Amino acid sequence: MLISREMVLDMDIGLNAALFGGDMMARMDKVAGIAASLLSRNRRFLTLKVSELVFHSPVRAGEIIEFYVGISRQGRTSLTLQIEVQVYEPVSDRRRDVTSGEFVMVAVDESLHPILIQWKPEMVQVAAQAHADRHPG
Asked: What are the HotDog ACOT-type domain coordinates in residue numbering (predicted)?
């Protein structure tokens, strides 16, 4: 499930002429929060865990990055999202892998205590199918 597209700007670029890794992780974390909210009727989620991120390709200023999200695990109060990031080249219509990782998100109340997730079944189905399509077998 494609969640977001963003253009990387000059101000996002570090000394090595590429997007900072920490900036990419922060963007992925925001996407995880948005995706969790789209998959449920819950308002608040906290990030519990982020798996190892491996960077396959640098991202340069002016490139468009795409965030693909699939749901890999549904729990009572948490969900695990697989997020994959690619650079999209609109002129050639090609994509290249940038990074991926798993984000565990926990639904919380106003006091930041875990609560049951109120799933949106139709959205969960879309996300689960997206994960299965990108990771067959």
From this structure: 1-111
Note the pLDDT tens digit of each residue in 83-137.
999 999 988 999 999 999 999 999 999 999 999 999 999 888 888 787 777 777 6
pTM, rounded to two decimals:
0.91
Residue the block writes with tokens 């109120």: 118
Number of domains in the chain: 1
Residue 16 burial (C-beta neighbours within 10 Å; 0-12, 13-18, 19+): exposed
d(CA 43, CA 40): 8
- Provide the token pair at 31: 């996407």
Q: What CATH number has the domain bearing residue 94?
A: 3.10.129.10
Q: Element (H or E) spanning 26, and its range?
A: helix 21-39
* Domain around 72: 2-134
Q: Are 66 and 98 in contact (CB under 8 A)?
A: no
